[in-house]
Amino acid sequence: MKEIVLNQDLEYRCSSSEKELTFNVASNSDVSLLLSDIEEMELLNFEVSDNATLHLAIFAQKFLKNVKITANIGENSKIIVYFADFTVERNHLDASINLNKDNARAEWHLASLSTQKDDKEIAVNIYHNSPNTHGRIDNYGVCKENSKLIFAGISHIIKGCHQSTSHQNAKIVVFDDDCKAIARPILKIDENDIEASHAAVVGKVNDEHIFYLTSRGLSVEDAKLLITLGYLKPILKGFNEQVREQINSLIEGRL
Amino acid sequence: MATLKISDLHVEVEGKEILNGVTTQISEGETVALLGPNGHGKSTLLNVIMGHPRYKITQGTLLLDDVDITNMTTDERAKAGLFLALQNPAEVPGVINSDFLRAAVNATREEKVSTYKFYKMLDSATKELKMPFDLATRSLNEGFSGGEKKRNEILQLLLLEPKIAMLDEIDSGLDVDAIQIVADVIKKEEEKGMGFLVISHYARLFDLIKPTRAIVMINGRIVLDGDTSLIKRIDQTGYEFIKTELGIEIEKENANMNTVSIGTCAVKETIKK
Predict the structure, then answer these.
(1) Residue ranges of domains in chain B, CATH in brackets
(2) Do B107 and A218 touch (CB under 8 A)?
(3) Which residues contact A30 (CB under 8 A, 6 or more apart)?
């Protein structure tokens, strides 16, 4: 497997010949990685050493096969992931983050747009393997037409990993009667002295929200668009200006 | 002069009649206090005037400046000059307050405002309301305190400059200082010509905004229309005199009202069951 040492910020376009990649983040470093063209990838692995921070931004916009993401996070280290999923057709993403040492942290933000006949299943797992580890998963999705979108994932705090916190949030806004959306955030907790929560919301755009926005002069269509953008746009803050523009035009083109 | 005329308005929700023959009018430059016990249709009336799709008008008309708005959509009514400050403004995650405000300002004006002009407007309105400017950059009402939500409603009023503004318990959730700020805004806008229809259960707000008229709604109908001495009387003695002097039996809520508190709509809570 190809290995890349990250000791400075990097923008990396995966090539079609690569199937597996490992990024190593050295101790005491704070780096940003922007990954694109991950379409042909099968495995992306991230090793974050002690006292390090990795800001990972992934932008996927075409076809995606079965991609697996793994990450191992060291002591006092952190991974912050922004994943913009604008892939089409079938997509199966499976991410597992291991918080292996004291004060290891993971933040995962994903926005997914599912339209037409897309069939997507996104599973994000965080494993708390040490005390005082902290994980947060926020998955936001928009599901339209005949598409299918599943958010799954397990936050697992194993026995003895006290003082850990784990929060999961999965929200999908559904547009049409023929689409299928499932949010399944699972907590597996084997320790008492922890803090954990999970929330799942799947539903149409709230009528009271539409009334509120239309009562200020917005048309129903504009109100729906603004509310929907509210699900997808928070992901933008993880990306640079150039990618933001690309994501914006993708959203506006496909909504 | 802008006038909202409500004539013989009958309204149903899920087959249950909530308003049965409301007739009244509000003109620009006047402030009308709308009083009445919980669950007698005050909030419903305001929502119906704004065109909430949940309520069905079965009879009667709404005219704004002699234009029939009875069948207009909510956004058309907003564009025509109506505004409703909600009792419980919704939290809309992800929708940035300033994006929403700008879309609203542009929707209700013929000419779009420039980014620069919009921020000038926003800056001056937030200062007037003593609101931190950063509230404008957060998600719409999400994580706002009760008082911040209410100020945000008045912020929208200032930016949209409606002809007739309806305020549904704008004072609930506001502390004494904030009530004063909101009352000052109402007085100032009234002098400039805005008309107000105001629901409140507390005489404090009315003491500050000094309404020009008071109307009392009982059993889904306006039963009294008079001067502001009505506010004082009701504040001191309640609604009992309506029964003894007018011979109107005040229908009790047959539903359990335990779920109703300040900041909830009694009618909505009742029809939930």
Answers:
(1) 3-91+163-272 (3.40.50.300)
(2) yes
(3) A52, A53, A55
B52 vs A140, A211, A222: nearest CB: A211
How far, in Å, CA of B74 to CA of A217, rounded? 7
Residue A191's alpha-carbon distances to A128, A160, A163, A195, B254, in angstroms, are 11, 6, 9, 10, 48
Nearest Cα to Cα of residue B57 among B4, B3, B20: B20
Tokens of A246: 């690309």
Cα A176 → chain centroid = 24
pLDDT digits (tens, 9 = 90+) for B144-190: 999 999 999 999 999 999 999 999 999 998 999 999 999 999 999 99
Cβ contacts (< 8 Å) between A216 and chain B: which residues? 78, 83, 100, 104, 107-108, 156, 160
A120: domain range?
2-205
Asked whether this complex has an ipTM greater than 0.85, the answer is yes
SS3 B53: coil
Angle at B29 between CA B23 and CA B34, to 5 degrees: 40
Residue A143 maps to a domain: yes
Q: Is residue A16 part of a domain?
A: yes
Partners of B178 in beta bridges: none
Residue A62, in any domain of the structure:
yes
User: Which helix (H) or strand (E) is B64 found in, with range?
Assistant: strand B56-64
The verdict on residue A244 lying in a domain is no
Phi-psi region of B200 (alpha: psi -120 to 50; beta: other; left: phi over 0): beta
Contact status, residue A216 vs residue B107, Cβ threshold 8 Å: yes
Question: pLDDT tens across B91-133, in order?
Answer: 998 899 999 999 999 999 988 999 999 999 999 999 999 999 8
Residue B215's nearest CA partner among B3, B1, B30 is B30
DSSP symbol at A88: B
| Paired strand residues for B224 | B216
Of B54, B89, B94, Cβ closest to residue A212 = B89
- Given a cut of 70, whether residue B200 has pLDDT beyond it is yes
How many domains does one find in chain A?
Answer: 1
Tokens of B28: 């620009």
Confidence (pTM): 0.80
| Pick from A215, A220, A227: CB nearest B95 | A227
